[in-house]
Amino acid sequence: MKYLYVAAAPDVSAEDHRMVSDCLAGEFGLPVRRMSIPAVDFSYDAARGQYRSTAILESLLRLWPRDAEKLLAVTERDLFVPVLTFVFGQAQLGGRAAVVSLARLRQEFYGLPPSREVLVARAAKEALHEAGHLFGLVHCEDRSCAMSLSTNVRQIDSKQPALCAPCRARLAGIASQELRVRE
C-alpha cells in the first residue's frame, strides 16, 4: 500500500503537524502517514533572510519512505524561489515532493494577534493546493477553488478549503489514467 506522507520539520508543533495531516486525510484517495524530517536550515539564504524551497524539495527526495506515493513537508520557515519575493509553498507538478510554510499563514507575521482559526483555515487550503499540484492539478481560474493561485493571504482567505467540481473531475481523471498505466 502507498501513502501520502505529511512530514514536519522540528520547528512545527505536533498540533500543527496533525492539523495539516488531518486536512489532507481522504482528499486524494490515499491514507495519510506522518513523519519527521530534519531541520531545513541548510536551505537558508542569508542575503534574503529566507529559505530556498527548491533545496528543501531536493532534500525530501533523499528522505523518501519506500511506501510513499507523495510527500508534503511542513515548516515554519519563510520560503522563497529566486524569481519571487516569497512562496507559501512549492510542489513538483505531478511529482513526488511538496513543501508548505506556515510562516506567512500566521496572523502574527503581519503584526496581528494570533488566531488559531485563521491559521488552520489557511494551512488547510495551502496544503490542499500543494498536494493538488503533486497529483497533477494546475492553477484553477475559480477564485474560490483551493487550486487557485494565491499571491497574498487575502486570496487564500477567499478560497474554500476544497477543490471545485472541475478540479475534482480532473483529479479523478488523472487517478484513473495512472491506474491504467500501472495495470
Could you explain the architecture of this structure?
Helix content is about 35%, strand content about 20%. The chain has about 180 residues and is of the alpha/beta class. The longest helix is centred in the last third of the chain and has 19 residues, at about 115-135.
Summarize the structure.
The chain is of the alpha/beta class and 183 residues long. The chain has 5 helices and 8 strands.
Radius of gyration: 16 Å
Helix vs. strand class: alpha/beta
What is the count of β-strands? 8
Distance between the termini: 15 Å
Kindly provide the name of the CATH class. Alpha Beta
Count of runs of 4 or more consecutive helical residues: 5
Name the average pLDDT: 95
**Strand portion:** 15-25%
Kindly report the CATH topology.
Collagenase (Catalytic Domain)
The helicity comes to 25-40%
The biggest sheet amounts to: 5 strands, mixed
Order of helices and strands: EHEEEHEEEEHHH
Based on CA inertia axes, which overall geometry fits?
Answer: globular
Strand order of the largest sheet: 2-1-5-8-7
The parts where pLDDT drops under 50 for at least 5 residues are none
- The fourth-level CATH homologous superfamily is Collagenase (Catalytic Domain)
Q: Indicate how many domains the architecture comprises.
A: 1
Tell me what the CATH architecture is.
3-Layer(aba) Sandwich
How is the secondary structure organized here?
Layout: E1 3-8, H1 14-24, E2 32-36, E3 44-45, E4 50-52, H2 53-62, E5 68-75, E6 79-80, E7 89-91, E8 97-101, H3 116-134, H4 153-158, H5 165-182
Parallel strand pairs: 1-2, 1-5, 4-6, 5-8
Antiparallel strand pairs: 3-4, 7-8
Helix pairs in contact: 1-3
